[in-house]
Design goal:
The complex is a heterodimer. Chain A is built from 15 helices and no strands. Chain A is mostly helical. Chain B has a two-stranded antiparallel ribbon with strand order 1-2. In chain B, helix 4 packs antiparallel against helix 7, helix 9 runs antiparallel to helix 12 and helix 11 packs antiparallel against helix 12. Chain B is flat and about 75 Å long. The chains are: A mainly alpha, B mainly alpha. Chains A and B meet through helix 1, helix 2, helix 3, helix 5 and helix 6 of A and helix 1, helix 4, helix 5, helix 7 and helix 9 of B.
Chain lengths: 298, 327
């Protein structure tokens, strides 16, 4: 894919336009120059990512050689060592997946319900509620963290995933606003038709509107999942017992303790990032659309 | 003319309205509960904590009045961490806003291959800040890291990057810009696509050059997006934490991040330090809550200033006309 795209990038576009010869040649040169420049730029741009993956596959003797971007020979010993340093790596994967999946599902459900109500119901205090929801975007999570910490500590929830998952189950300001904006774009006729068929508001939502909002669920779900997968600050507050760690914490624990073992560190970085990168290749369009939409909504 | 008494036809309508409001409340219940339980109440409670001392060893917080707040004024690390955060805003936020605009201008035109460039520029955004921080920690390594190795090819010694108090924060800013660029670019592109093509065309016919078309036509048209990015990236910059931890932790624990010489200790990192470190007279949850409230007030004031100034430079197309999507 990379190669074909690069090749395509080199060929000028639309040579068949009815432009004067000189003009066409100049445009073709300019297009070629653009694509050559952009190709160099983006490759340089993601070089750190490629470099990290490459280091995880190098032998220690070749670790710092500049000509090892494609490692030769390739070794997987650092991955093997990583599982010796972090014998519970599989558990961290499980902890991370649990938080990311349950948290995302809960947020999507609660926020889409709230967003739908804000978009399609009329009730007193509607505008005020929307304002309050938007204002909470200004509240730094650190301010509410300390009282939350005390509550969860009293519930004996420290060193369990509950303090991270449970607040996610009640939705969030940004996803709620996102769903509101999305539902506003859907035509009202669909709901009118459902109402004529005798469907109540709940059935209309779950059997007509929610399926139509598939793209919104997908985009917001991906963003939330990635955010939870990558999050570190709250996890480091609540999950101090090593058995409860998530992947970012395990990764962070490598620095300092194994500072000079670059192969193992980069193997960790690669393993934690790989699922996201692979997923990103497939759903990139939806992630980007989701971001563009949530930004435009403002 | 209708009198005060409700006509028979109005009674069922108001009942229907009440029913609708009731159903709406049910739809909104989880979100409203979340707002109250995890934001509203904690906000007040943390304000209360800021007037107390609590090390979590004692069963209850002890009321100490304004002591935490007066201590904030005396604590010499407070201006230091505020200054560090400001340093980050003037490097990281500014470069993010500018560079992602440049990236958007390079890739917003629909051409073949452009989706590929965008996808790669966006990729770092989906990675964790910890993973990215660790990778760049290596990039900045002064002994064998690629950046200084490249600089040395020109026969000069590279900077000490994360080891030098003068360059550590700019180095972190470079990394957050690198990682966030795709996000800003995506929003700018969406906004640039909203500009009617006739506008720059007309300006071109009137003899405006590329810079003038950008400065006087495109930029005003995308200014709402600029404002959105300014506000949100400022809020984010004030909460800088993960990248600092990933790039400056020496030794095993987060408590040791923030170096060299405290030059990258941010407000949130200092709050974290105070929350879990009870070695000082006032350190603990109470003082940490006071620091968190400083952060909240700072966020609020800066956002307010942004809104106030935005009236001078943000241009809303079709202002006064019907607005799309009920914003």
């Amino acid at each position: 894919m990379t190669i074909t795209d690069t090749i395509k990038a080199g060929t000028p576009q639309r040579a068949a336009q009815p432009a004067p010869g000189l003009h066409r040649a100049r445009r073709r040169a300019r297009t070629g120059f653009y694509h050559a420049g952009m190709t160099v730029l983006v490759v340089l741009y993601i070089l750190p990512v490629l470099w990290a993956a490459s280091m995880s596959l190098r032998t220690d003797a070749n670790m710092f050689d500049a000509d090892q971007l494609i490692p030769h020979p390739i070794t997987f010993e650092h991955y093997a060592n990583l599982f010796t340093i972090l014998p519970d790596f599989g558990r961290y994967v499980g902890n991370t997946v649990l938080i990311a999946v349950v948290g995302t599902a809960g947020t999507l459900l609660s926020s889409s319900l709230a967003g739908y109500a804000l978009a399609r119901f009329t009730f007193p205090g509607q505008r005020a509620l929307l304002m309050v929801i938007l204002l909470t975007l200004m509240v730094p999570p650190q301010v509410t963290l300390i009282p939350q910490y005390v509550i969860f500590r009293n519930l004996n929830w420290i060193d369990t995933p509950l303090p991270i998952i449970v607040p996610m189950l009640f939705g969030g300001a940004l996803p709620t606003f996102f769903f509101r904006q999305f539902f506003l774009t859907l035509p009202r006729e669909l709901e009118d038709a459902a109402a004529i068929d005798g469907a109540g508001r709940w059935r209309t939502f779950f059997s007509v509107m929610a399926p139509l909002a598939g793209p919104a669920y997908l985009a917001m779900g991906l963003l939330t999942f990635v955010q939870l997968w990558n999050s570190f600050f709250v996890n480091s507050i609540y999950l101090q017992d090593q058995n409860q760690w998530v992947l970012t914490q395990a990764l962070q624990s490598l620095i300092g303790r194994y500072n000079s073992q670059y192969g193992e560190i980069m193997a960790g970085v690669t393993l934690v990032s790989l699922p996201i990168v692979i997923g990103y290749v497939f759903v990139q369009r939806w992630v980007v659309r989701g971001i563009a939409f949530s930004g435009m909504a403002n | 003319m209708a009198e005060a008494a409700p006509s028979p036809a109005q009674a069922p309508r108001s009942r229907a309205r009440r029913r609708e409001a009731g159903t709406a409340l049910l739809f909104l219940l989880p979100q409203i509960f979340g707002l109250v339980a995890f934001i509203g109440v904690p906000l007040g409670v943390s304000l209360y904590y800021s007037f107390t001392h609590w090390d979590l060893v004692a069963p209850e917080p002890t009321w100490i009045g304004l002591e935490n707040w007066t201590h904030l004024l005396e604590d010499e690390r407070v201006p230091k961490v505020l200054w560090n955060t400001i340093k980050f805003i003037f490097t990281g936020t500014l470069s993010f806003l500018l560079m992602s605009l440049v990236a958007a201008l390079l890739t917003y035109r629909p051409r073949r291959g452009v989706a590929f460039y965008r996808a790669l520029l966006f990729l770092p955004y989906v990675l964790s800040q910890i993973a990215v921080g660790i990778v760049w920690r290596w990039m900045f390594n002064t002994e064998s890291g690629p950046i200084n190795a490249a600089i040395e090819l020109f026969g000069v010694d590279g900077p000490q990057w994360l080891l030098d108090p003068a360059t550590a924060m700019p180095a972190i800013a470079l990394v957050t810009t690198w990682q966030g660029l795709g996000y800003g670019m995506t929003l700018y592109i969406a906004s640039l696509h909203g500009v009617p093509e006739a506008l720059p065309e007309a300006a071109k016919i009137d003899g405006a050059n590329a810079w003038q078309r950008f400065r006087h036509v495109m930029l005003p048209m995308i200014s709402p997006t600029v404002l959105f990015l300014v506000v949100t990236s400022l809020i984010g910059a004030l909460q800088l934490f993960d990248p600092v931890v990933a790039m400056t932790t020496s030794g095993g624990s987060i408590g040791m991040a923030g170096g060299p010489d405290d030059s990258t200790r941010t407000v949130v990192l200092y709050m974290y330090n105070q929350m879990f470190n009870y070695n000082e007279r006032l350190s603990g949850l109470g003082y940490a809550a006071a620091i968190a409230w400083v952060l909240a007030l700072l966020t609020f004031v800066l956002t307010l200033i942004q809104w106030a100034f935005s009236k001078r430079w943000v241009f809303y197309a079709g202002e006064g006309a019907a607005k799309k999507g009920g914003q």
